[in-house]
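DM from R.C. (forwarded with permission)

"hey, sorry to bug you on a friday — could you get me a structure for this? deadline for the figure draft is monday and I only need the backbone to look sensible"
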Amino acid sequence: MLEPGCADRDYDLLAMREERAEVLARLWEVGPEPRPVQLEAAGAGLLPFACIEGTGAYLYWLTSKDGRPEDWTVLANAGRGPEWEHHPVQSTQFILSVITGEIHSEILYNLPVEDHTFDSNDDILDA
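My reply, with the result:
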């Protein structure tokens, strides 16, 4: 999970927002990778909230100019390819549903798993 102001830039939500916006803009401008259709709506945007280590995948909130953050849904990106998935649920519901197997994601193909753990960024960075 990304958090604002994290000591490690790779886990800092604000730093990753800028980095991902630049990377995606370049891909969509010069590359063959198409923008997700959900971004065609007026005022739609992306805000990364999680990255999947080892895979290059990112989870984004699909933001809207006039919408409330609690109404934002999830766009998952493979990171190392053009695959995008829209999941029309809140991020917490998405994470819970992927972990329990209620939602299937081709991008998060190795879920669900039997055992679940959560390590905070503080725990990871202090290790």
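R.C.: lifesaver. The chain has three helices and four strands.
me: no worries. The longest strand covers residues 45-52.
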